[in-house]
Amino acid sequence: MKALKIISYLILSLLFLYILSGFFLLPYIAKKEIVKNLDEILITKTKIEKIYFNPLTLNLELKDFSLIDEKDQEVVGLKNLFIDFRALKSIEKKHFHIKNILLEGIYLNIIEEEKGVFNLASLLKPTKTKEEETNQKEKTKLIDFLVSKIVLKDTNIDFTSFTDKKKYNLHLKDINYTIYDFGTFKNSLSSNNLQFKLNENTDVKISGGLKIEPFLAYGKITISNLKIKELLDFDKSLFNFELNPEANINLALNYNIDTTNDFNLFLNSEIFEINDLKLNQNQKEIARLNKLDLKYFSFDLNNQELNFKDLTINDLYANMILDKSGVNFANLLKEQKDEKEIKSSNQKNNLNNKPWKINLENINLNANFDFHDILNNSKLNIKDIKAKTSNINIVDDKINIKGANLVTLNTKYIDNNNKLNISSSKTDLTHDDIFINGSKVEILNSALKKDKIVFEDEKLKLKITTNNLGLELSKLYIFDEISFDLSNLKLNNFILEDKNNNISLSSKNSNLKVNNFLLDKQNNISINKSELYDTNVNFFDSNSSFDINTKKTNLKISNFNLKKDVITIGQILLKEPKIDILNMESKLKIEAKDINLDLNKLVSKENLFKIEKTNLNNPHISIILPKSIQTKDEIENSDLTKQEADKKVENKKTKRVNFGPINIKNMTLDFEDKNLPIPFKTIISKLTGEVSAVKNRANSTSNLEINGVVDNYGVAKITGIVNPNNIKLLTDVNMKFKNISIKNFTPYTAKFVGRAIKDGKLELDLNYNISESNLKAKNSIIIKKLELGEKIESKDAVSLPLDLAITLLEDSSNTIDLNLPVSGNVDDPEFSIAAIVWKAFVNLITKAITAPFSLIGSLFNFSEDEINSVDFNLKESEITPIQKETLDKIALILNSKKEFAISFSPSFDEKNEKEKIANQRALNIQKYLIEEKSIDKKQVILEKEIKKTSSNIDLNLKEIKK
InterPro entries per the record (predicted)? Predict the structure, then answer.
C-alpha cells in the first residue's frame, strides 16, 4: 500500500510539475529562447508579448510577435498564433495531427531598396559556414501529418520599392485564408478558400482543393477590378508609355494541376475582361480600348493546346506615329541588356518542343486607326474598322483562318509633301478559308467590295474616282509563285480626270474576269483567259476635242504570257461593241457597231511587235461630216500638221512591226456629209478583202484587194501594192467603181456647181502610182445618161456652163468619157491631189465657153485650129478641097451633136478686097453644109454682121435652144 501510495504521489507530482511547467515554465523558456535565437541570427529585434501553452489540451498560443528593424519599423508582425495539437490521435494513428492553426493579424512590410535588394532577404546576419561534401544522401520518409484546419485571418502585406525615382507601394489587405485537411495522412484532399484586397479597388478570391502526394490542385481564381497601372508602376523603367488609372482587368479562372504522372496544368476562364484602357506617350494618346471581352479561354499544358472563344474587342483606337526615333508602338517596351541573349536561348530550347495548338473561335473587333508619318509629312486615318472571324487554328507555323471579314467605313490618306490625297468609303473584305504554312499562303475564296475610292494628285492635277467596286478571287496561292484560279472585277463607275493633259476617262458597268493567273519565281506572268464584258467607256481629250464613247464592250484575251520582257498572246477577240467618236470642234462623228475583231498570236518584245493574223468581220462604220465653217486653208494646215506629226512618230520607230494578213469580211461603211445644202449619205456594204502582211522594214510591201457594194447597185474594187512604212516610196493603187448612181451626189453638185442631178450613172477607174514621192495618176471618169435638175443656190457654187459642157462632152450614146491625169511631187507642201483634180475639172468645163472647139475637138481627136475657122485666100470665095477639109470635120461634129449649130459672119479684108466677096464666101459655106453634107438648116446660122479684118471666116459653136 505504501508503495502504491508513493507511486501515486510521484505521478501526481510529475503531473503537477508537467502542468506547472506547461503553463508557466515552457512559455517562459520558449519566449526567451525564441527571442534570443532570432536576435542572434537576424539583424532585427524580436518582440513577443506572450506565449501561452495548455499542457492538458495541447493548445499553443502566441501573442503580438514582431520583428523591428534599425529604423524602429515593424518588418514582420503577428497578432495571434493559435495551434491546437491532437497528440493522442496522432499516436493512435501514427501520424502528426493538428486540429487547428490560426494565424491572425499577420503583417509583412516588404521593402525593395534602390539596388534591388529586399529587406526580408537581408534579415539574416552574415555567418561563416563550412561546406560539407557528402558522397551519399539517404532518402528518409517523413512522418505523415494532417492539419484539419488552417485559418489565416486579417493578414496585410505592404510592399514598397525604391528602385524607381518615384516610390512604389502595393498593399495586400484583409487577407483571409482557410484550408481544411491539409497534410499527407491518408493522402487527404484539402479544400481552401483565399480572399484578399489588392490596394483599394481589387478583390481577389481563390477557392479549390489541394492534395500533397502526389501534388494535385484545382479551383477557381476570381479577380475583380484589377487596376493595371498599379502593377505596371512597379518598374516604370520597363515601359515607355503611361497608362490611365481607370484601366482594369476582371478575371474568373479555373485551374487544375496534376503531378500524378507528369506535371499537367489546365486552365480555363469564365471571365476575362480588360476595360477602359488608355495609353499615352509624350503626352499624346496612342491607344485606347473600351473593352476586351473573352468569354472562354483554356490552357492545356499536357496536350499543349490554347483555346479562345467569343473574343470581342470594342472601341479600340490606335494612333501610330513615325518620327526620328522610329514607330511609337515599337518603343513601348524599353529594350533590356540581356534581352537578345534570352531570345536566342529560348529559340534553342524551343527547337525540341512539340508544337502548340492554338484555336480561336468567333473573334469580333471594332476599331479606329490613325497613322502620322512626321518624317514624310503624311497621315492615314481609318474609321470604324470591324473585323471578325469564325475560327483560327494555329499549329506550329501552320495557320487556318475561316470566315474572316473586315469592314471599314472611311479611309483617308494625305501626303502633304507630294500633294497626294486618297480616300475611300465602306470597304468590305471577306475570306472563306485562309491556309498559312510557313511562308505559303492559300486563300480559297475572297471578296472585296468598296463603295467609293478617290485618288487626287495635285502636282499632276490627276483625279481618279471609283464607285461600287467589287472583286472576287478564287483559290489564291502565294509562295514562290502567286496564282489564282478565277478573278471577277466589277466596277460600276470609274472616272479619271487629267487636267494637265486635258483628258478624262470614265467607265460604267465594267466587268473583268481572269482565269488561271500565275506569277512564278522568275516574275513571269501567265493568264489562261481574261474577259472584259458589258463595259461602257467614255474618253474625252479637250486638246484634240475628241469625245469617244464605247458601249457593251466585250474583249477576250487568251493565253497571255509575260516572260523576260516578252509578251505573247494567243488570241484577242473584240466582239460587237458600239463605238461613237465625236470631234467636238469640227463635229465630225464616227460610229461603229457589230465589230468582230480577231487578232491571233501576238508577240511583243524589245525589237519586235507581231500579229500573225487579223480577222475583221461584220463591222458597221458610219462617218458623219457636220456643218462646218472650217476654211480650206485650215483643213490644209491641219493636214500638214498631221503629216509633220506622222513624220516625227515615224522617225521614233525602232521596233520591228509585222502584222500578218488582215482579212475583212462583210464590212459596211456609211458616209454622211451634213456640210451641204442637201445632206449627202451613201452606204458601201459587203466590203470583203485582204491586206497582206504589213511590215515596217525599209523595202517591205503590202498587197491589198477589197470588193464592195455601193448603195444598192454599184460595185467597188480596190487593188494595189503599197509600202506601209512610207507610201511616198511606193504606191500603186487602182480603184474601180461601176454603176454608181450620180443622183446621190446631188448634195455635192448643189454645193459646188449649184445644180441638182436628176439621173445618171458613174464609173471611175482611178490609178495612183507614187515612186520616190513622184505621183502619176490616171483618173478615168465615165458618166452615162447624165441629166441635170433644178438650180440650187449655194454660196460655194462655181458658175459653170454645165448644160453646154455636157452637150459637148456626151457622145451619141449620151456617155461622157473623161481622162484627168495628175502628176507632181507629193513632198511639195503646195501639192494636193484633190485640188489638182478639181482644177482640171473646172478648166474642162470652163472650156465650154472659152474654147468650145478645143473641148469638142478633143472628143473627135481634132485640134482647135482645124475646126475654128474656114481659111480663104485673098479675092477667093469658092469651096476648094482646102475648105472642104475643115467643113467636113464640122459636118461630122454637127451630125453627132444635133443640139449644136455652127454660126459664122461674112468676112473680108477691106484693104485688099471688096465687101461683095465676103457675102459670097459665107453663102458658099452655108450651101456646102446644107446641100452637100445634109446638115439641118437649124444647125447652120449665117449672121448679118460683116467682119472687115480678115479673108478667113471664123466659126462659132452655139447650143440650139429647145
Answer: AsmA-related (IPR052894), DUF748 (IPR008023)
Average pLDDT estimate for 445-460: 90
Question: CB of 754 within 8 A of CB of 777?
Answer: no
**Could you tell me the CATH number of the domain that includes residue 952?**
3.30.1330.60
Phi, psi for 506 (deg, rounded to 5): -140, 150
What secondary structure, in 3-state letters, does 610-652 show?
A: EEEEEEEECCEEEEEECCCCCCHHHHHHHHHHHHHHHHHHHHH
Report CA-CA distances (Å) from 932 to 868, 882, 888, 927, 953. 20, 16, 10, 7, 19
901 and 821 within one domain:
no
Dist. CA 346–CA 326, nearest whole Å = 27
- Phi–psi pair at 438, nearest 5 degrees: 65, -120
Alpha-carbon distance values, 258 to 215, 217, 301, 304 (Å): 6, 7, 11, 15
* Phi-psi map region of 695: left, alpha, beta (phi>0 left; psi -120 to 50 alpha): beta
pLDDT band (50, 70, 90) for residue 779: confident
Same domain, 873 and 804: no
Range of the domain at 881: 864-959
Cα(500)–Cα(633) distance, integer angstroms:
30
Residue 929 domain-assigned (yes or no): yes
Distance CA 846, CA 834 (A): 18
Report whether 709 contacts 737 (CB < 8 A).
no
Residue 917 placed within a domain: yes
Q: Which amino acid is at 755?
A: R
Residue type, 753: V
Domain assignment present for 834: yes
Lowest mean pLDDT among 137-141, 333-337, 804-808, 920-924: 137-141
Mean pLDDT of the chain: 82
Cross-strand partners of 423? 412, 454
Q: Which helix (H) or strand (E) holds 436?
A: strand 420-437
The 10s digit of each residue's pLDDT in 566-582 is: 899 999 998 888 888 88
One domain for residues 829 and 871:
no
How many whole angstroms separate alpha carbon 180 and alpha carbon 191? Answer: 5
Give the mean pLDDT of 336-349: 48
Half-sphere exposure for 813 (CA within 13 Å, toward CB): 7
Alpha-carbon torsion angle 376, 382, 386, 391, nearest 10:
-10
Residue 304: strand pairing partners: none
Sorted by sequence, the CB contacts under 8 Å of residue 72 that are 6+ apart come out as none
> Cis (ω within 30 of 0) for the bond into 821?
no
Instruction: Assess if residue 694 is contained within a domain.
Output: no
| Sequence-ordered list of residues with C-beta below 8 angstroms from that of 535, at least 6 positions apart, any chain | 507, 508, 509, 510, 511, 550, 552, 553, 554
- Distance, in Å, from the CA atom of 718 to the CA atom of 732, rounded to the nearest integer, reads 11
What distance in Å separates the CA atoms of residue 808 and residue 800, rounded to the nearest whole number?
13
Using a cut of 0.85, tell me whether the model's pTM lies above it: no
Q: How many residues does the chain have?
A: 962
CA distance 302 to 261: 11
Same domain, 814 and 909: no
> What's the CA gap between 445 and 18, in Å, rounded?
88
- Identify the helix (H) or strand (E) that includes residue 30: helix 26-41
- 839 and 731 share one domain: yes
Q: Which three cell numbers stand for residue 195?
A: 480572399
Gap between the Cα atoms of 219 and 210, Å rounded: 9
In terms of domains, do 750 and 809 share one?
yes
Q: H or E segment at 805?
A: helix 802-809
Whole-number Å distance between alpha carbons of 541 and 790: 44
**Which amino acid belongs to residue 328?**
N
Spatial CA neighbour of 359 closest among 337, 331, 389? 389
Residues 790, 756: contact at Cβ < 8 Å? Answer: yes
Instruction: Count CB-CB contacts under 10 A for residue 133.
Output: 4
